[in-house]
Amino acid sequence: MPTVAELYKKDLDKLLKPGIHFLDGNTATAEGAVTAGCRFYAGYPITPSNEIAEYMSYRLPQVGGKFIQMEDEIASIAAVLGASAAGVKSMTATSGPGFSLMQENIGLGSMLEIPAVIVDVMRAGPSTGIPTLLGQGDILQAKYGSHGDYEIVAYLPANPQEAFDFTIKAFNTAEKYRVVAVVLSDQLVGHMYGKVRVPEFDEIEMVERPKPTVPPDQYLPYDSKYLVPPMAIAGTGYRVNNESLTHTDKGYPTTDKDASFKLVMRLVRKIRENEKEIAEWEEYLLDDAEYVIVSYGSTSGSVRRAIKVLRTQGYRVGLLRPKTAWPFPGWVVENLASRGVQKFITVEVNMGKMYHVVREFSRGVPVEHIPYAPGYIPDPDYVISNVKKVIEG
After folding, report:
1. Quick check: 142 and 356 in contact, CB under 8 A?
2. H or E element: which one contains 70?
């Protein structure tokens, strides 16, 4: 794979310089996008993601990119898909209500296999909720929000460093597999300040979407002999029929059963067959853990502190922190269940989202959920007292 240094050598002086920076999570996200080669942003203002749009509005012109404020979130994701189809790495950022509005076009992007990145800075819900405060209620929506069968990839940063790193990963994954990739940040991560290390540019690998190698008259836009078909760019001489209906390898609408089965199976296979390559997670004190807490994003910080205290009190507790919500590393849960873990405990700022996912893989091992009011992060004392209740009763 080429590196940032190889792909963007004429613009290296315009990128955030390698070294240590002190950034908030939303700015780190924007700089990660620029480093990854994003040169188009379409969005609509929404708290608590506004810093991303504001920052990109003056940052993109500095690197030869374009920023446009659309009339709403529906138009935003539509513009992102159009720009990506024209060959430009593109993104938008939003929060819960805007993410809801984008769901139909997430399905469109999945059907057309157009790479795109959406940053969802989660906030309290449902509906308008508490716009300025934390939420983690969009976990299941990210995967199941649009209708039909498709797969997305969703990253879960827990700090500004991961906001930078995971945004780059999201662009690489979107391009490699021709999917919509989501960065599921949250209000606290977005507004948290922290140290961000930017690697040397020749250390950052970039993935470019597969391009056709055949002449235009032999090109099939959705060639099913590939798991991820080569993607011709608009205006390069190739005919591409971007069709939202179930389509043939040529991109023509069809109601044929075999064509439908072949197409939709491929849409899900390209992620499901590579889930162990894509999925990421962190294990903390799991070697001898009898009780495993599953937590992610900003909430995992409170959980980590709580575990340190619980350990001093004799409780053998560890943390499994998914770094990707999707694909979820379910085989890690299965392995822990097989080796004798007594209970799984999910700690989230919601009434139970990832809880259901962990149950799917727990092999009968009990799963308990510790909920918390949307808008607020559970402090370590709350986690400690409730974990003790779960363990003892």
Report:
1. no
2. none
Q: What's the sign of the alpha-carbon dihedral 169, 171, 176, 179?
A: positive
Model pTM score? 0.97
**Could you report the per-residue pLDDT of 272-286, keeping only the tens digit for each?**
999 999 999 999 999
Instruction: Assess whether pLDDT exceeds 90 at residue 393.
Output: no
Contact call for residues 160 and 132 (beta carbons, < 8 A) = no
- Buried-state track 24-44, b at ≥16 Cβ within 10 A, e below 16: bbbbbbbbbbbbbbbbbbbbb
- Domains in the chain (CATH in brackets) are 4-203 (3.40.50.970), 282-392 (3.40.50.920)
pLDDT tens for residues 9-21? 988 999 999 999 9
Please enumerate in sequence order all residues whose Cβ is within 8 A of that of 392, keeping only pairs 6 or more positions apart, or say none: none
Whose CA is closest to 329, among 303, 364, 354, 309? 354
- CA 392 to each of CA 291, 338, 367, 387: distance values in angstroms, whole numbers, following the listed order: 11, 22, 14, 8
Judging by beta carbons within 10 Å of its beta carbon (0-12, 13-18, 19+), is residue 235 exposed, middle or buried?
exposed
Q: What is the residue whose two structure tokens read 């099939």?
A: 220
> Residue 1: what pLDDT?
86
